[in-house]
């Protein structure tokens, strides 16, 4: 049996479909899980409650942690350590292998222009410090015998992905007849990982025994496009004018008084004031995997 903790998000839905290629017993775990495949087992659970996580993981061979928490630093500091401790303990007890879907927040700011699996860990943000601490928990558990791997993604996008930066700042605004916006500098390169590639590659990693014990960057197009080029590509696909404005730090600070999410984004702005290049060549070479191009991914995002 293979189990998804945090089922229901766009990535987890793709992952659930892909796991049909590897197992006929898939368990979907969330507060209110919904069936993706006809034979899915639905298991309601709160990942912040140790007993419920233990029950959800029991009998699993592979566990995928794709859960997200509210984008709020107070919530992250309070809940991520609890959630990860529950998952580690449950996987250890069940002798299950763990695949953790992670982001790049823990990398040092100077690593952002070319991120690899060996990039230095020195997070400049409070959210990054939480992610680094969670990674430390996993690496300690690995030293104690847990079979685990960390799969990292760049900022993500794709069809039916509501909280993607590309959706929030570009497609959603164009749909409203408004200008798109881009954080800080639209002339900087920025990598994005296509959600269907994330789901497919998580399933592949989870079912590759010798992939465990390592960090993997999930397949991401090596095309180096700037924010302006993304806006122009999306505008062309939507048949609208590529109008946009720059969302500056002072705008974040001012509007953050009224819009909580903007307060949360302010500390992550460093990822937009420089090139942001996510290198997934390790995964691509190991699995002979070709990531979706941005042209195709954006076509699917706009029309999917």
UniProtKB/TrEMBL annotation:
InterPro entries: Epimerase_deHydtase, Lipid_A_modif_metabolic_enz, NAD(P)-bd_dom_sf. It comes from the Bacteria. Residues 4-211 form the NAD-dependent epimerase/dehydratase domain. It holds the Pfam family Epimerase. This is NAD-dependent epimerase/dehydratase domain-containing protein. It comes from Dyadobacter linearis. The lineage of its organism: Bacteria, Pseudomonadati, Bacteroidota, Cytophagia, Cytophagales.
